[in-house]
Amino acid sequence: MNEVQVVVAHTERATLRVGDVFLKVDSDRRRTDVEVEAMALAPVPTPEIRWYQPPALAIAAVRGQALGRLGKPSTASPAAWAAAGAAIRALHEAPLPPWPGPNRDETAAELDTECELLVARGLLPADLVARNREIAEVALGPWEPVFAHGDLQISHVFTEDDEVTGIIDWSEAGRGNALHDLATLTLGHEDRLDDLLAGYGTDVDVDVIRAWWSLRSLCASRWLIEHGFDPSAPGCEFDVLRARM
C-alpha cells in the first residue's frame, strides 16, 4: 500500500506524493493555472498532468534524479548539466507566453524592502546586506524578456543517462529574465556554472548571473525563515551571501 509523503507544506501551498503521483494544492489558483498552461507551452520535458481540479493539481512523477539539492554537492555529471543548459536555452528561445512576468521596477522595490527587513529584524549583519545589495544592482539593468521558468531551482530539473527527463514546478513561469533562471539553477553550485553554459551557450554575462545570486538570496531569505525553511544551513542562501564578501 502506498504511503502519503509530505514533500513540502506551508501556508501558501502543499505538495503530497502517493506512489508515482504528486498532488499539489495551492491557495492561489492563478499560480496553478500558470503552471498548467506553462507546461503545455514549454518546449522541454514536463510532468504528465493526471487531472486538474482547482485548487488541486495531480501530476505524474518524472524519471531520473534531480540535478542536486541546495546545500549539498551535485553528483550529476558535467554532461547532465550541459543537457540541462541546452533544455533551458530551448525554453528561452521559445515564443513568449501570453501572460506577463515581473518587471525591473517590481524587482528593485522587492529588493529594497527585503534588505531593509533583513537588517531591521536582525536576520543578517548590515554590512553583509549592503555589500550584496551593491552587487545585486548589476542584475537590475535592462533585459529582453524570454519564456522563463521563474523558479528554476536545482531540485526542479531531472535527468537520466545525461538527458533531461523533466522540469517541474512551473507556477512562477512567465516573461522573465534568462540570467535569473541560470542563476537560480546554479545558486550554491557556482562550480557547475561552466558545465551548464557548455550546453546553454557562453554568450551570457557571468557578472549578471553572480548579481542574481545575491539578489535572489536577499529576496528569498526572510520568506524562507517565515515558512519553516533554513537559509542559514550550510551551502544555502546565507552562505551564498557571505561568499560575496
TrEMBL record:
Pfam families, per the entry: APH
UniProt cross-references to InterPro entries, sorted A to Z: Aminoglycoside_PTrfase (IPR002575), Kinase-like_dom_sf (IPR011009)
Limits of the Aminoglycoside phosphotransferase domain: 42-202
Entry protein name: Phosphotransferase
Organism from which the protein derives: Paractinoplanes ovalisporus
